[in-house]
Every structure is written in C-alpha cells, then in structure tokens.
Design a protein that fits this description.
The complex is a heterodimer of chains A (about 500) and B (about 325). Chain A is of the alpha/beta class. Chain A has 17 helices and 22 strands. The chains are: A alpha/beta (about 500), B mainly alpha (about 325). At the A-B interface, helix 10, helix 11 and strand 18 of A face helix 9, helix 10 and helix 14 of B.
C-alpha cells in the first residue's frame, strides 16, 4: 500500500456543552479514497472543519506529509494542500466557469485588470482533466446542469493543486447517472495521487467509490476497515451501535391491498409529462423512479393540484377529480410531501407545532378560531408518534436535525389522514437511523389503507420499499416493475432507455 | 416559570416595559405629562397612524408592505371632500371614500400577487400616482367648508374622549384578536413564513395577499376620512410621510420585512412609544428637530435587540437539539 499523506491523531474538539470529537484518529493514504461515515451528529462535519482549518482542535495532531500542521484559517489549510468541495454548491451562478474556478485568484495583467486569455487557458486545462474540452470556460455557471456545476466546484477545489481533497456529500444534488460520472472523476483524481476524503449518507456509494472507511459515532472513532473486507450491515451496525436488520421492513402480501385508490389516464402537461397512466391501490407503496427531469415531481404536483395537467383524467376511488389547487387536493384527502423541505416544505422560523398545523388549520379550529389546545394536542401526538427530538417544541424547526425536520413534515402530512400521499424524495439528507424510522412510518400508513406514491432518485430505497415501481423517462412512463422482482439493472435500463 | 418566560420573551412585553419606563420617568420629570389633556392629545395624535397600522401589521406579517398609505389618506380625504362640496350626502361620500381606498389596495394587491411585481416598487409607484392625482383633483388647494354632520365623525367626544381615539381603539382590539386567534388571519403568518410552503399546505396565497392590500387601502381610506373630518378640511399634503411612521411602528412592534411575525398590539405599542418620545422631548423642551433623529434611533435599537436575542436564542436551541439527538442515540444504543 502507498504511504500515508494525511493523519489526524487523537483529535478532541469541545463546544460548550458538547464534546463533538473525542479522540478521533483517521489515516489517509496517497491516491486512495477514504470514506467517513456516521449518523448526523457523529462528528463528521466537525472533523472536516478541523481538517480544513475552520475549527481549531482542543488537542491532537494533524500531520500532512510527515509534517505537523496548525491551521490559522481555512485559507491557510488550502495553501498547505487541503481543499474541500462543500455539500451546497458555493458557485456564483451569474459568473462564468473560469471566474468561478479562480474566484479570488484571477490572473491579472498590468493595472490589475483580469488577464482573460490566461484565465480561460488555465480553465480549459482544468476542464480537460475531466474530458470537458468542449465546454467554453466563458459559459455562465447558471447555464450548466447540476453535474457539470459539481465538476466546476471540484475544479475550483483542485485548482490550488491540493494533496488532499475533501468531498462533503457531493452527490446530494445529483442523479444516479451524474453520480457515476462524479465517481469516474474521483478515480481520475486518485490516479493522479490525490487522496480523497469522502463523506456520504449513502452507504452504497461507499462500496462503489471508497477503498477504506472510518466509522464515527457520537464523536468517537468506532473502527476503520478496508471496504473490500466488509458489507453494508457491518457499517450500519457500527454507525448506529445496534443491529438494524432490514431498514425497509417486510413487504406485505399483494392480496392484502385494497381497492384501486388512484388511477391516472393519459395525463399530460406540456413540457413536463405525456400520457402518464398509472394505478395505485389502497395500502400499496408505489415507487416512481427515473432520472431527475424525467417529469416525476411534475406528475406528483399535477395530481396534487399545484400544477394542474393540460389533459387526461385523474380518478380517486373511482370518481373523477380535477383539483385546481393544493387546497382542493387536501380536501379530497391527497397529501404531497415536497422534495425540498427547506424552501417548499417547512416554515423554518416557526416551532414544530405551527409546522404540524399548517396544512390542517381548519380541523384544529373551533369555529373560526384556531384552538391552541387542539394544536398542542396534535403536536404532542406527532412528536410522540414520530419520535421527533425537538426539545421543548417551541424552538424553530430550523434548529432541528435533517431527520427530525423530515419527520415533522411527514407528521404534518400523515396528520391530514390522507387517502393518497405522494412523497417526493422522502429521505433526502436524512441519516440512516431516521431513514429506517421514516420507512416504518410510510409502511405503517400504507397498512392503515393509505395509497402511497414514492418519488425517489435513491435506487436502493425504490427497490427496498416499493410494492410496485413505475419508471419514467423523458416525461413518459417507460415501464412498470414488480417490487420484489425488480433489479437495479432493470430500473436503470428503463430510466435511460438502453433496454 | 415556562409561561412567564414565554410572556417576557414576547416583543410586546419588551415594548410595553419601555413604554412604562418612559411614562414613569416622564411623570416625575413633568407635572403636566400625566394630565388628561396631554394624554388625550397624545392619543389623538397617534390615532390616524394607529388605524392604518392595524391593517399594515396583517400585511407585513404576510410578507408584504405598502408605501402608498400616506397618499391614499390624502386621495380619499380629498375625494370625499369634493363629493361633499358637490352636494353628495355624507353617507354616500364616506362610502365612496372607503371604496376608493379599498380599490387602490386592490390595484396594488393584484399587481403584486398576480403579476409578481415587487411590493416596494408597486406601492412606491402608487405613492406618486395617488399623491399626484390628489394634486390634480384639488388643483393644489385645500377643500374646506364641509358639512357639520360630516365633521361630527371626527370631532365628537364620548365621555370626553375624541372619536378618532375610540375608532382606533376599537380597530386595534378587534384587529389584534382577529390576527392572533382567527384561522383566516393566522394564515398570514404562514404566507410570510414561507410563501411556497404555504401554497403547498393548501393556503390560498394569492387571494390572501391581495386581500391584505385591500384591507390596508380600506383602513388608509378610513384614516383619510377621519382626518379630513377632524380637521374640517381636506389638505393636499395630508399624510405626507405617514407610510414611514406606520411601517416604523409595526416594525418596532415586532414585525419584520421578511414577514411571519408581528402583532397588532405590538404595532400599537410601537406607535405609542414613538408618540411618547416625541411628547417627552417637547415637554422637556428639547429642540423639535431632534424628534426624527430619536425615532430613528428607537427603530434601530428595537431591531438590534431583536436580532441579538434571536441569534443567542438560536445557538442555544441548536445546542439543545444536538444534545437531544445524541441522547436519543445513546438511549437506543
């Protein structure tokens, strides 16, 4: 094996009241991809911040290439060879690729004016690393697709020629296909001798891209291992500290499903989806898979009345419906959990109780007056049923972890006692513990007779939970698969049309 | 304990406490301060802006705001006075005045919610449009010689209290209860908190936003009529700069430009605080030119205190949440 490039030894970092890191050790070899896994709050982000000079450790050593380092600032860490690609893109959409890559280091000529040719030449060299010679460095970032934006983000990080590159949840905004392109790019980097530290919630990614892995729990180092020697169960049980047998639970027998709950016939909306016909029975969880942009979310929003279809019919329990607004859909017993809980789902500055009441103020009122008592009761029930860790319950939901935020949103929608619930990316940005709980809540809701449509880009989730799967491609339903029998290959083949 | 904490954490409580401090301090500083005459004059002075602040609070809670209220006051006042001068009956003239105010609100609201033009630009245009229209209508002259039964609206006293004060008090109490407790108006908080999430929660966002502007226009129209009646004349400069005083009061009272927070009671206390400060400075013989400066300082202080409080509150809550999740993990482990 190659030599060690970065070692963090016995790192301790305390915040008032919380020991975020307690004696964590991690070793990175030249040219390898090393994954760090752990639940939310395990200390992954704190470790990254210590390694990139954002936080100074209370004790412990950081040794880069045999030399002990003390970073005075993030900029200092970069100059010493540790770069990071953040989870949220840090690009300026209205500027060009080149200007983004060299954000604060644009080559300048006389009089301090930016040397545009030099800037573009260097950008083209970098783009060529990823076989993107065809792209003009003057292209504005906002005109690029998310995957290419991600590449620009990576180029920005490696333009300083680091020896260690940290990638924090890099696939969170990417589709499966885009993610596999990202992995190719990571392999190119490691071949050039760069060591990559890879953080992800998606365990299957670890097995695809990482050579070695370190597991953290509650700020402690749990174990490290060579990925080839272990399996997913090993990782999960070490992350959670207990054995989670199957996070998806058992599928019920199809004979237990009720009558046809939702049927769409030839649903179309210009520029979004065409001739979409599907059927969902009461008690069934139907997965809606496909690439981002295939029209899945738009189809969900159409059934929910938020973006009504141009043509086609929707039948709910056999009766034709045409909800023209979310209000009408909710009154019909249709719920929709958005894929973007922060900007479209939650009221981040409001406490848990107000969020849980948002979509059913009427049923929590006495006459025209909102009843504090009814809202409090509903909130207490939801907090208990969905195990929402919210402290006093009066804090803004902004302060909750991603998993708890998602449980609040799901609780709000289960609260309307829906006949049909459409969930869009129900576990995005949620750690494994909360994820298995959410699957449990969805299965529980279905077993009480609700029909569930689950839109998801996470293939393991689609395959693990769905009773049946529809796959969309370019606005059309490309095929239907039996949940038990479906394979990853079959879904991808339908989604990309390579069948 | 918890209840006490919640009570003292409210913005109304803080502003109320400051108001109390000013009142106590002033009652020692000036013997004239607590006299009925001074108190009534003070309340009469703020009644016009307090009427508008009731509707403006609902509007700002929903994330909007309206720069045109001062112009609406002048326009509706002038239009009503012109109708009266032309011999219209009082009842009809007042009704038309109110309808004009609501109509301007509808105009603002539709442009903002249907076409999607930003509230600042839209209502800034309306500010000039309707101030200009007032000048055109009145040809730059004041309109006086209004009938006595119209003047009675603003000049009557009940148990020694002038009607504008009573009208404002009534609207503040009703408005506060409506916005605090009634489902219909509670929806404004959700719209201001996150408009897109409100839409997906089944709240009729566009309709409610438009209505908030209509109500603001209507209340400004009412304020214009009350003011014209009290002065016995419509002035083309009536309500100049009033929008800034109203918005200042609402923000001091706990609202923000982002929406999602604020109460009518808070807005009234904000308005009262500004009036008290002005009154105190006058009684203490401070140069009148200092008043505007001190009001600016009050606004800035209120907002700064709020921001600092929010930040420390949030970081505390964040720690608590983190501790709670790691506890959970440990328990289940």
């Amino acid at each position: 094996m190659a030599d060690i490039i970065l070692e963090a030894r016995d790192i301790v970092k305390t915040f008032p009241g919380v020991k975020a890191l307690d004696g964590v050790t991690i070793r990175l070899r030249r040219g390898e991809t090393h994954a760090v896994v752990g639940e939310n709050g395990a200390g992954k982000s704190t470790l990254m911040m210590v390694l990139t000079g954002v936080h100074r450790p209370d004790s412990g050593q950081i040794i880069l290439d045999g030399e002990e380092l003390h970073f005075s600032s993030p900029h200092d860490a970069v100059s010493k060879g540790i770069s990071i690609v953040y989870q949220e893109l840090s690009l300026v959409p209205s500027l060009s690729i080149a200007e983004n890559i060299f954000a604060n280091r644009q080559p300048v000529g006389r009089l301090g004016a930016v040397h545009r040719q030099e800037l573009h030449r260097r950008s083209r060299d970098l783009l060529a690393l990823f076989d993107l010679q065809g792209i003009d460095p003057a292209t504005l970032v906002k005109n690029l697709n998310p995957a290419t934006q991600q590449v620009v983000e990576i180029l920005k990080a490696i333009s300083t020629e680091p020896s260690v590159l940290i990638l924090d949840e890099p696939t969170s905004s990417l589709t499966e296909v885009e993610a596999s392109r990202l992995f190719e790019n990571i392999r190119r980097l490691t071949k050039r001798g760069i060591a990559c530290l890879y953080i992800s919630h998606h365990l299957y990614e670890i097995f695809e891209i990482a050579d070695t892995v370190t597991v953290l729990r509650d700020g402690h180092f749990v174990c490290d291992a060579v990925v080839a020697d272990i399996d997913e169960d090993f990782l999960v049980s070490n992350m959670v500290g207990r054995t989670i047998t199957d996070i998806y639970g058992d599928r019920p027998d199809p004979s237990s499903f009720g009558a046809l709950r939702l049927e769409t016939r030839g649903l179309s909306r210009a520029g979004a989806f065409m001739g979409a016909s599907m059927q969902v029975r009461a008690g069934e969880i139907v997965g809606l898979s496909g690439l981002v942009g295939a029209g899945r979310t738009e189809l969900g929003l159409a059934i929910f009345g938020a973006q009504p279809p141009d043509s086609g019919t929707i039948l709910l329990d056999g009766a034709e419906i045409s909800p023209a607004s979310p209000r009408e859909a909710i009154d019909l017993g249709i719920g929709y959990l958005t894929e973007d809980r922060k900007t479209q789902g939650l009221f981040l500055d409001f406490p848990v109780r107000s969020n849980l009441a948002a979509n059913r103020l009427r049923s929590l009122s006495r006459g025209p007056v909102v009843s504090d008592q009814l809202v409090d009761e509903a909130a207490a029930t939801a907090v208990r049923n969905y195990r929402i860790a919210s402290g006093e319950g009066r804090k803004p939901v902004r302060t909750l972890s991603g998993g708890n935020q998602q449980k609040v949103l799901l609780g709000a929608w289960i609260g309307i006692e829906p006949r049909l619930l459409i969930v869009d990316e129900p576990t995005r940005g949620v750690d494994i513990g909360a994820r298995s709980e959410i699957y449990g809540f969805l299965r529980g809701l279905a077993s009480r007779g609700t029909a569930i449509v689950m839109i998801s880009s996470d293939l393991t989730e689609i395959l693990g939970l769905s009773d049946r799967i529809y796959v969309m491609k370019s606005g059309k339903i490309a095929g239907e698969l039996e949940g038990r029998a479906a394979t990853e290959e079959a879904v991808i083949a339908l989604a990309t049309g390579s069948a | 304990m918890n209840y006490f904490k919640r009570l003292t954490g409210q913005r109304e409580f803080m502003i109320g406490a400051i108001v109390l401090v000013v009142v106590v301090a002033m009652s020692f500083a000036s013997p004239y301060f607590l006299s009925t005459g001074n108190i009534l004059a003070l309340l009469l002075g703020l009644s016009i802006e307090a009427i508008i602040a009731v509707a403006m609070t609902n509007l700002m809670v929903s994330g909007g705001f309206d720069m045109s209220v001062g112009s609406i006051v002048a326009f509706t006042g002038a239009a009503t006075a012109l109708l009266l001068a032309a011999g219209f009956p009082v009842f009809l003239a007042v009704l038309v005045g109110l309808a004009l105010g609501a109509g301007i609100g509808l105009f603002n609201g539709l442009i903002i919610s249907k076409i999607g033009i930003n509230p600042f630009v839209t209502t800034l245009s309306s500010l000039s449009l309707f101030r200009g229209l007032t000048l055109i209508l009145t040809k730059g002259r004041n309109i006086s010689g209004l009938p006595d039964n119209f003047k009675a609206i603003g000049q009557t006293t009940v148990f020694g209290i002038q009607t504008p004060i009573l009208i404002a008090a009534f609207l503040i109490i009703v408005g506060d209860i409506l916005l605090r407790r009634f489902r219909f108006f509670r929806q404004s908080y959700y719209i201001g908190g996150n408009e897109r999430a409100a839409r997906l929660s089944g709240i009729g966002v566009d309709r409610l936003k438009t209505l908030a502007y209509v109500l603001t226009g209507l209340f400004a129209g009412l304020a214009g009529i009350v003011m014209t009646s009290r002065l016995g004349a419509a002035s083309m400069t009536a309500g100049t700069g009033l929008e800034l005083r109203v918005i200042t009061a609402v923000i001091i009272g706990g609202a923000s430009l982002q929406g999602g927070e604020g109460t009518v009671l808070g807005a009234f206390l904000g308005s009262l605080l500004m009036a008290l400060i002005t009154n105190a400075l006058t009684l203490l013989g401070v140069d009148v030119y200092w008043q505007t400066f001190v009001i600016g300082g009050t606004l800035l202080t209120a907002v700064l205190i709020d921001q600092v409080g929010k930040k420390s509150g949030q970081s505390k809550a964040l720690k608590a949440a983190k501790a709670a999740t790691s506890d959970e993990v440990r328990k289940s482990a």
